[in-house]
Amino acid sequence: MTGLTSFENAAHVLDELIACHEHLAELYQGLQELASPLGVMFLEQLSVREKKLADTLERYEDNAPVKVLKTWIQIPFPDDPDKFLAALQQDLPAELSTQDIYELASKADDFITHLLEHLRDRCEITDVKKLFEDLIAGEKIEHIALSKTYNSLREM
């Protein structure tokens, strides 16, 4: 991922979000060796979720109006996604509990939502602003699903 530092078009923003979700899917796969059997199941579910989110964004990009995708914006990301992902992996316990995994995934969801809100709040182009609003709504739905999954696992 390269982040955004100057003028970029909306398609590039989507590409960055796709890459972020793909990296999260890989991260969750890689963390399975640190988790209990229940944690492995949770991480696998998170990895599948991130891959589906990346696929959804790719399908959107394939079908989105060219006018929206080619719209140029000058809104740098507030934080570098690569640095965030690297920091997310630091200071992990030797064995991940389901709570540790939930907190990790919540941080990732919050990061992406914050990034999208930053882009939406600074965008003056109605169609692109709507794109960011739709993506925020989707992220919030996914976070609710994450909480439900975690609560179900806690009851097991």
Top-tier CATH class: Mainly Alpha
Biggest beta sheet attributes: 2 strands, antiparallel
**End-to-end span in angstroms?**
37 Å
Query: What is the string of helix and strand elements?
Result: EHHHEHHH
Could you tell me the strand content as a percent range? under 5%
What is the helix fraction of residues, given as a range?
over 70%
Query: Would you tell me the overall average pLDDT?
Result: 90
**Widest beta sheet: strand line-up:** 1-2
User: What is the CATH architecture annotation?
Assistant: Up-down Bundle
Compute the number of structural domains. Answer: 1
CATH superfamily: Ferritin, core subunit, four-helix bundle
Quick overview of this protein structure:
The protein is mainly α.
